[in-house]
Amino acid sequence: MADVRVLMEEQIPRLRRYARALTGDRSSADDLVQDTLERALSRFHLWRHGSDLRAWLFTIMHNIFVNQARTRLRHQHEALESNAAVESMRAREPDWLELRDLESALAQLPHDQRAVLLLVGLEQFTYEEAARVLGVPVGTVMSRLSRGRERLRAVLAAGGNVSALKVVK
Amino acid sequence: MIRLPVTEADLHAYVDGILPAERAAEIEAYLADHPEDAARVSSYCEQTAALHRAFDPILDEPLPRRLEVPRPVWARAALRYAALVAWIALGGVAGWHLHAYHAASEYEATTWARRAAVAHVVYSPEVRHPVEVGASEEAHLVRWLSKRLGAPVKAPYLGDLGYSLVGGRLLPGDRGPVAQFMYQDGKGQRLTLYVRRDADKRRETAFRFARERGVGVFYWIDAGLGYALSGEIDKPELLRVATAVYRQLNP
């Protein structure tokens, strides 16, 4: 088991990075990582030795996140449509860090689009790997990626305080 | 020069840097003529860069204590097991005295048999998690347990006697790790084989038998390993299996 713990420990920073971007909140992100590690250990016999441990852990994390998101939806309505006017009122402070801008923009994406955008853009999974992690066809990954990126672009453009993000490479 | 039409997927593949150089060059040529798509692509590239700027610092943060990899399942199981042992030791169960041996080695042997019986009682009723590693990964299981015990262990084949391997797990013993293999027959009757390294490499003992509360245990030491076979079956049947195990391990 010692080697398993080492292998898992290597993945924790990336799980945290993804969880943080996905949830937009430090403490929920670490809760999610903790739940993921616990579930992974309790089901470790289901992991095929030699297969991609990282993808397996991200799959577990995704499933937990989706289940929790379902529970949350019963209590509060997730912002499924962006409301640029409301958002620009909320986002007036000029000194917000880029992180805050980006987190609030990401929060306006439906979570399935957000997950794809982060798996591909931040975690650098291939489209096929992202499809396996999310349990959807590659075509679905592509369409969510396309819609997610366009949505994020629109939200950031409407935000009014995203100068850092408007820089064209 | 004939170019394939540029699709939405091409644009994203370009952003993600996964196109072959030749195709990437074609996309660049296309973007030069299509400023709207070029603006989108540029914005998507910047999104990716912004995600890394915003979230990569998390990779270097020290881990909060609660995110150290939790105790593995076997260790949690071990706690449960330890609790049961303590409970028995406190006299919660009367009659766990398998035999009244006096010599220290005999005492140790009965402790060993009792530990095997307790481990059997704890794990054999488990429906969902009877083992840590299933029989489908037998090669991995055997390698892993051998590595942890520091001695080559084997999962004997008992199919001829009607018992198939369910899998195995690692448990803590008083002198280091202990392996437990679990077998099951067609009716769900389970046997467990408890294996540990013996202190003396050359020591051998005959079969001994102990029974308590319905659990029979045959135990012996052979070629540097101590074995205990436990089951809630009658003694002749258990002996038949123990003999088969012994013969397989000593071909």
User: What is the mean pLDDT of chain A?
Assistant: 78
Beta strand % of chain A:
under 5%
The helix-strand sequence of chain B is HHHHHEHEEEEEEH
- Per the CATH scheme, the topology name of the largest domain in chain B is Phosphorylase Kinase, domain 1
Strand content of chain B: 15-25%
Largest interface: A-B, 46 and 48 residues
CATH class of the largest domain in chain A: Mainly Alpha
**Mean of all residue-level pLDDT scores of chain B:** 81
Helix content of chain B: 40-55%
Number of helices in the DSSP assignment of chain B: 7
Q: In CATH, what is the homologous superfamily of the largest domain in chain A?
A: Winged helix-like DNA-binding domain superfamily/Winged helix DNA-binding domain
Coarse shape of chain B: elongated
Query: What is the straight-line distance between the termini of chain B?
Result: 73 Å
Note the main sheet of chain B: 7 strands, antiparallel
- Give the C-alpha Rg of chain B: 30 Å
Would you mind describing this structure in some detail?
The complex is a heterodimer of chains A (169) and B (251). In chain A, helix 1 runs antiparallel to helix 2, helix 1 crosses helix 3 and helix 3 packs across helix 7. By secondary structure, chain A is mainly alpha-helical. The longest helix of chain A is centred in the middle third of the chain and has 23 residues. Chain A is globular, with a radius of gyration of 17 Å. Chain B contains seven helices and seven strands. About 6% of the residues of chain B have low confidence. Chain B folds into two domains: 53 residues, no CATH class; 177 residues, 2-Layer Sandwich (Phosphorylase Kinase, domain 1). In chain B, a hairpin with a 2-residue loop joins strand 6 and strand 7. The chains are: A mainly alpha (169), B alpha+beta (251). Chains A and B meet through helix 1, helix 2, helix 5, helix 6 and helix 8 of A and helix 1, helix 3, helix 4 and strand 1 of B.
